[in-house]
Structures
1.
Amino acid sequence: MSLTEVIDGTQAAVTADPKNAAVSFTTTNDLVSGTATQVAVAVRDHSFGVDEPAVLGGGDTSANPVEYALAALGSCQVITYQFWAARLGIRLDDVSVKVDGDLDLHGFFGFDETTRAGFGDVRVSVTLTGPESPERYEELKRHVDQHCPVLDLFRNPTPTKTELTA
Amino acid sequence: MSLTEVIDGTQAAVTADPKNAAVSFTTTNDLVSGTATQVAVAVRDHSFGVDEPAVLGGGDTSANPVEYALAALGSCQVITYQFWAARLGIRLDDVSVKVDGDLDLHGFFGFDETTRAGFGDVRVSVTLTGPESPERYEELKRHVDQHCPVLDLFRNPTPTKTELTA
């Protein structure tokens, strides 16, 4: 199925019943040892490791959580560019996205309680290749930045509850 | 190095010069084709794929961006539990974290511009195993939720700039 067919098919399904637009995603995250963690994605058969580099006490066997967060953002931008280029009829030959995030470890370690634990600043650099005018690609960027799920997650608060069983 | 040694070593380095706490992370995210995207983590030698399931126009070769975002949160919780248990001297034998996120596709597809593109609701269920009292583990949870970088990313706005080269 082309992305245009997916968009049209989803629109038809959602028009028939708006509840068809409600989707849920689940991951389970289990300690292996130290900082090594194994992730399984529910329903679909995907799994991968997470770990810290040696300076943060890990075995460096995989990317760490904040790198996965930046990868979620960068890959979401790539895919949202693909969808919205199809939706708007804008030809796009290639997309590459670099994401940089700065973090102050005073927050994570609690050395300074006024420093936030998460990223203080994130920069996304998008490179598009194709035959359209720069103005057309700027128009595409506006639509992408308005509809990219992980960019929304970064820029805006998300209601997130934590619950403990011990 | 034990996590306690990492905490003490980082504290010494950061006390000597607060700038030692400033760290940056980078990923590059390149389109393969369709929705398939390849991620490389800068400096460290880690890479992985990202893709959508068939209903979202993908080849289902890997987890998708929002699943990686939930995995970033779940694994960050696991690792922050490990660090803060070491820091507070709380014995913890095992940690398992399930993360569920709900998303309304009206947002991503732009079928309704009043629906946010990202998660409307996220639930984190943490299961701890160990010999300490429930009160001790509740105390641990309070410290973890205050210092977990990806939980901070979910709950609070992060300054995120996007820049286009086309």
Note: The mean pLDDT of chain A is 96.
2.
Amino acid sequence: MNGYPPAHAADLTRSESSAARIDRRPDDRGLTVHHWVEQERRRSHMIVRVVSLADLTGWRFDPDSGTISHHTGRFFSIDGLDVTIPDRAVPHWSQPIIHQSEVGILGILVKRLDGSTYCLMQAKAEPGNRNGIQVSPTVQATRSNYSGVHGGKPVPYLAYFQAPGRQRVLADVRQSEQGAWFYRKRNRNVVIEVDDDVEAQDGFRWLPVAQVHRLLRFDDLVNMDARTVLSCLPLGGPELLGPVDGEQSDPFRSALARSYRPGTHARHTTGEILNWLTNVRARAEVTAAPVPLASLPDWHRTDDRISHRSGHFFDIVGVDVRAGNREVGGWQQPMLRAHGVGVSAFLVNRLDGVLHVLAHARVEPGLVDVAELAPTVQYTPDNFPYLPREAQPLFLDHVLDATPEQIRFDAVLSEEGGRFFDTRCRYLIIETDEPLGHPDYRWMTLHQFTELLRHSYYVNVQARSLLACLNSLVQP
Amino acid sequence: MNGYPPAHAADLTRSESSAARIDRRPDDRGLTVHHWVEQERRRSHMIVRVVSLADLTGWRFDPDSGTISHHTGRFFSIDGLDVTIPDRAVPHWSQPIIHQSEVGILGILVKRLDGSTYCLMQAKAEPGNRNGIQVSPTVQATRSNYSGVHGGKPVPYLAYFQAPGRQRVLADVRQSEQGAWFYRKRNRNVVIEVDDDVEAQDGFRWLPVAQVHRLLRFDDLVNMDARTVLSCLPLGGPELLGPVDGEQSDPFRSALARSYRPGTHARHTTGEILNWLTNVRARAEVTAAPVPLASLPDWHRTDDRISHRSGHFFDIVGVDVRAGNREVGGWQQPMLRAHGVGVSAFLVNRLDGVLHVLAHARVEPGLVDVAELAPTVQYTPDNFPYLPREAQPLFLDHVLDATPEQIRFDAVLSEEGGRFFDTRCRYLIIETDEPLGHPDYRWMTLHQFTELLRHSYYVNVQARSLLACLNSLVQP
């Protein structure tokens, strides 16, 4: 069984077939990434079972509020949130939400060698991954992980990210995660360039950065944490990914490459973008107030799970994890399991020969700062028709009616497997030639995204995944 | 009495003598600013009296929690905050704090004419100002003000700031205010450049931007809101303030002018500054939890005020305001009255001929994002010796022992007069030639501050005041 939960056997087939499409060119150890991930899957001994939520070892339910928390008070907790966003199709609701106030580290070590850039990637098992192991950052650790709360093994390579100043820091910024499921969560996205020879330990590989980006095109292969760190690389464009072959002959890639360059003509100045976003944020009267988990009117708790009365949105479930090569041998934890695969799509357009992305200033209840730049369309089809038709995203028709020629990127990728169980999203990049516009949307270049990604609270995690996916289109 | 509270008569003398030092060059209407402010003071009919906190008209005390809030639920409320910051000389305390979740607008209209830039400034009375009227931004309004919650007059010039896109937006960014006294307060700092002729209404004057900056050198004349907006002007340096006379002959001003220029050699790159600040923010384990105001162990409420048992820090008092020319004729409200004059000081140093400022990454409990860049030294002397000696700020000796030649700027300026009663701070800019260093401090250029001031949560309000004061030193 290779250590995956039996419930996933059917899905594994699909995942295997995706994996079979992986570029088989050998990496610097003569192993294709495909073989490497397969090998690691065979070696992995993680066994994940969905178990009763009521009896999770190490976790307690507050008898009054219903709050679920770890007995140490660390890791994370699950509580209720009451949300009001006036002038919405659904202006008020309440829901469970994950509180994780600790700032974890998501870090990739990079090294330049003979004109190419390599990333130290990890084949890491997470309990929520349907296929067990995915290509992950060098380091992916909560503070509770690396400060040894659970008494596990030390985190490899952590020292490179904890001693700033000893190496070149290419990126270091705290970024939000899913604002619909986390309350004000922030993780530190770090890219450190090393000069020394750093050996890849067991379970790690140095991979060319262009290859890591190519892997994004395969379903469920590069994990969310790797995607968000890749999006924060300041040289997200051709400078990092190497020269663009045949740039002149492909107008799309040519427009994409120009979009990364500073000084390229953008539809709006960065000052205008900031003015627009400040205005959206100042106008929005969002109330997101913590309330007791036990008091949520539409959510029911059984011994098995917490779920919405409609059966939509998501469940909170319990899982039991047995793992051979993790920091600790086994544990239990609650996880969020979404119903239905999400959709996150960027509409892109060549404006004056420069690729522009239609960004949405999207309000989400768990964000630290009201609204962030999000995909043009971000929603979960399965929540309709429970949700009213008016709640459907703007520009959805442009996604649903896209012709195959318009679809530049299409892959189903997993959300973070440490908190989300079998929770996935279809990431799409769709080209349009229509000059779409709306007060809550703006056309932006990739250079403008790069500028804003140096700072917290500008780009949401789904948009960051899509920006990493756009990077993957620079090379044919 | 010119409408100031009688209790302030003694202090007025000092303020008058400061005002008498104002540059008497006429503005474009042939009136000196000194005469204009004096004239407005004579016309003002604001009478402020400290009254019992228990009987404030329009305000209610929650019988259980003690929360003080307006009967409409708007404006602001006062609640308790429990703060833990490990590894501090004082690692835990609790205190009253002001909640004001509405984002207000602080806006200045500017106009370029014959190569000079003019700002439309207002002579505005605020109840907390010891001298009644101070030079204020064009617009200074909470959302409750301008949405007419109190049924007052419309706010002049507000339309210029509410219809973005019609004029040139030079700055538009939400910035924090006092993180020791406000819980996550943000105001929108906006600078709009107009091409039309905009007439100065009664109580307003178009003043050259260099003159507004010169006024900063006088005690209690330019209010906090004006200072913070001025600091967000993207051309804070010589470009806006005009050519620097005799730049070559004065090494200090020469180094100051160079510090504003992009591309000048800075001690650290902006990437290094961001890495450092991310690290400080990620490491800090700050807990700032709202608690009932009635439950604070060291704070006592009488009918007159809420105060700390030591008599230090601040009181919450009630005031009665009668005003002839405000949006409404009269009102009552609670205010925060600090004990003792604060000190905010920047140490500055010419490094390789470029003026650098020693910024402190300072944790404050009410900040949205853990820590912001703050003055080198920011403290209230009167709180010692109640606070332990170890709680004294680093580098304090460099401020206390500064020789007159080292002191480049020294003025006592008022904090915001709408929430703070007679609450002031001494702003100092002190030159040093010592290469001071500490992990929580970094030498930064003014260009680097300008870059970060485009974004929220980087520079605290005291540092922004000091940056406006630094602007005032460009001209002799």
Note: The first helix of chain B runs from residue 9 to 20.
